[in-house]
Amino acid sequence: MKPVLISLWAMILGMSSAYAQDHSGHEDNSENAPWSQADAYFDPAEMAASRSHVLHHNGDQAFGMVMLNRAEVQMSDDEEIGVWDGSAWYGGDTDRLYLKTEGEYSFDEGDLEEAEVQLLWSRAVSPYFDLQAGVRYDFEPEGRAHAVLGFQGLAPYWFEVDGALYLSDEGDLTADLEAEYELLLTQRLILQPRLELAMSAQDIPELETGAGFTSVQAGLRLRYEIKREFAPYVGWEYHSALGDTADYVEAAGGEKDQAYWVLGIRTWF
Amino acid sequence: MLNRRQFMYGSAASGLLSGLGALLPAWARSASDGNHGLHPHTATEFDLTVGKFPVRIDGKPGEATGVNGTLPAPLIRFREGDEITLNVKNTLDVDTSIHWHGLLVPFQMDGVPGVTFPGIRAGETFTYKYAVPQSGTYWYHSHSGLQEQEGHYGPIIIDPKEADPVAYDREYVLVLSDWSFERAERIFAKLKKSSDTYNFQQRTLPDFLADTRANGFGAAWSDRAMWSAMRMSPRDIADVTGSTYHFLINGHSTKDNWNGIFQKGERVRLRIINASAMTIFNVRLPDLPMTIVAADGLNVQPLEVDEFQMGVAETYDVIISPPEDRAYAFVAESIDRSGQAVATFGPKAGMRAETPALRPVPTLSMKDMGMDHSAMGHGNMDDDAMSEDAMAGTMTEEGMNHSKMDHSKMDHSAHDMPEHDMGGMAHEDMVKSGGWPVESNPVKRGPGVTKVNMMPISRLDEPGLGLENVGHRVMRYSQLRSLDPNPDLRAPGREIEIHLTSNMERYMWSFDGVKFSEVTEPIVFHEGERVRVSLINSTMMPHPIHLHGMFFDLVNGGGDHCPRKHTVIVKPAEKVSFDVSADHVGDWAFHCHLLYHMHAGMMQVVSVLPSDDTPPMQEHESMDNSAMGHDTMDHSKMDHSKMGHDMKMEDDQ
């Protein structure tokens, strides 16, 4: 498994050096100016500086975004958990640095159940899809590092999809796949079905995970966009452990299926 | 013209200005604040100070970036041929500039930072000096950053040296614009993060149910499926809308009610300027026809209409002759119907016309996607404006689901084209179109381009989105005729094809898939040559495309009286051609005048090189005609080094 990790890292480094090359292009431009007739009337050095400025500011600016897609409380008869699912990015149209984080907090236990952070290089590879690679670290349930290779994008029929392969420092390979859809009831009242599927290539007993499909989450959230950037929502979500993973859960005295009412906030800036 | 009594009245009234009137120059004020028509007062020297200042927009306080502390900026009026001096002082803490939109100035006076001059630094004064051989209605604005959105625009009137062929008793300037209390940089950043942020007119579930009732479930479903399969919205009409914009006429919102006066039967000349950052307007005066007498500053043969669609940066002069002593509304409605600005013309100052309700939101059609070719046979069009269009269908990135399309409306023989030998076909079409070589760069495919329109159509004979069935006369570009014969009747020596390209989801905009930031070579014209430029819109939006420094003759079937313009709207799926005489040597900006499209990269430079550089004919002989840049071709088989721009580089060396 080590060679896979190394090749993933090589890929990330390759992307970042491609990014650096894209951005060093402007200095080349000013030496080998695409147009320069105004140099006859104004200081050529000043023209070169303003030329590189205008080029940069018409298509090559970097932006940043912070998005808390789900910040919610999930409530069932048995338990109450807090869930967050957010991301932040910074970069241009093609290359972006992504930070993603997801986790669960148990109000009953007063403890973090799951918490992970991913740092990814994201590259636009087609009009609607980005390829993403990087690292993930799980703080809970136990400290574990992963190499990540994934994608994110907009599929035909407006499905927002997101999927990744994770290779842990223990050599375990897992994957997940998410899809969301937005149905506009009005311009601001939006119904969002969401499906998340997790898989594992092998048994991971210490994480109570069996090989094959491990879990599915299906949810329906109804949000109201008070502003585009701020929307409270209510919803319902169903969790189910699958296959051998379900056996682990039941052996530990848990429920393999669980339904929750959801109350949360979606916000971005 | 104003008589002495009116002038005195105007002066007296200015002592009693309303809150808004006090903040505005005399020409932009209402009749109720003393403006009873423009004073034909010209000057040769102007002092303009660019800075930040407080404004009152739609009753709310804000801060603008602009000129001499007023929004809009002062009227600059001078006489054709006069040598004028404009001292522009920059009191901002960032660079600024002024571009004289539509004026044939020497290029180093054109005011585009990084292209024609270095810009005006903070604290510095730049002096523009020029004389121009033209008259009419124009405007000026910043070409630095996004200052234009924040108030940096004003009108220009150039009075003709000879007698004006347009007779009028009274005149007004109407500067249309869009104002937001959000900072322009923030608007742009929001579009980059979520491009439909300002669109509150998407189709919803209730709309679907209504369509189901009207057309049946099958039709409603397949329509939704077709659009969503392509990840496109038929309500993607304006990127920035009335949800953040306050639409203004001379700085007045509908509530502020800019009002002008007339005496019954007078001929009133309205000089209308669309100085918006992003808003294409539908302009009309309900119950009152307008006679268009000038377009983009230059006189046209009088054309009576009831409404016209006006691209950002276009100007139109119209004559109105109100037949009754009553208030008439002047309506500037945003193309997406998300808002409007309404002013009043009446026999007395301070009247307020009834504000018409906003009309239903238009929805894009298959035609806008480049998929419906039932409208191919335009009888009144020039052959050469049409002939090359029968090439192939629109290709989206992942290909179309043809089973969902209405085949009865399509020309199947044309659809098979991509599988044939494009090189040969292109050549054949080229000969048909007049014999001149056509140069087109292959569109650079990638994340920034969702589709390339291979089968564009002419839509010059259409009134514009949402105005197809309004039940009255709407101007079409095909109707415009220059008043004067065109000065240069040569056939073009060559044609340059340029695709307008985008990815709405990522908010990327470009020409030929290349953002301005990625441009390494300009579009080259050679001094003295006559060149045809064909713009092919591969996006779902209309783009007002502006060429600096030169008027172009719009190929609209007008023969030797084609309208001469500086800005032209290219409708979705359309191919628009114009001929231009490359008389003005210099580097000239060429861009979409929707500010955030330009800012995202939809810009290029046209370099008109002095004639001693490269004889144009030499280039034609050496060009490989078979190396046409049609996107369905197998590019791996092509020798790109022989294509248009690369060729020029070789010649230059």
Describe this structure in words.
- The complex is a heterodimer of chains A (269) and B (653).
- Chain A has 269 residues and is an alpha+beta fold.
- Chain A folds into 2 domains: 2-56, no CATH class; 63-268, Porin (Beta Barrel), CATH 2.40.160.40.
- Chain A is 19% helix and 54% strand.
- Chain A contains 3 helices and 13 strands; from the N terminus they run ααββββββββββββαβ.
- Chain A has helices at residues 2-31, 44-56, 243-251, and strands at residues 63-75, 80-91, 95-106, 111-124, 129-140, 144-155, 159-168, 173-180, 183-184, 189-200, 212-224, 230-241, 257-268.
- In chain A, β3 and β4 (111-124) form a beta hairpin.
- In chain A, α1 (2-31) crosses α2.
- Residues 1-6 and 8-30 of chain A have low confidence and may be disordered.
- With 653 residues, chain B is an alpha+beta fold.
- Chain B folds into 2 domains: 4-183 and 245-346, Immunoglobulin-like; 383-652, Sandwich (Immunoglobulin-like), CATH 2.60.40.420.
- Helices cover 14% and strands 29% of the residues of chain B.
- In chain B, strands 21, 23, 24, 26, 28, 29 and 31 form a 7-stranded mixed beta sheet that branches. In chain B, strands 10-9-12-17-14-15 form a 6-stranded mixed beta sheet, with no helix packed on it. A 5-stranded mixed beta sheet of chain B has the order 11-19-18-13-16, with no helix packed on it.
- The longest helix of chain B has 13 residues, at 217-229.
- Chain B is globular, with a radius of gyration of 24 Å.
- Residues 1-15, 375-432 and 615-653 of chain B have low confidence and may be disordered.
- At the A-B interface, α2 and β9 of A face α3, α5, α9 and β33 of B.
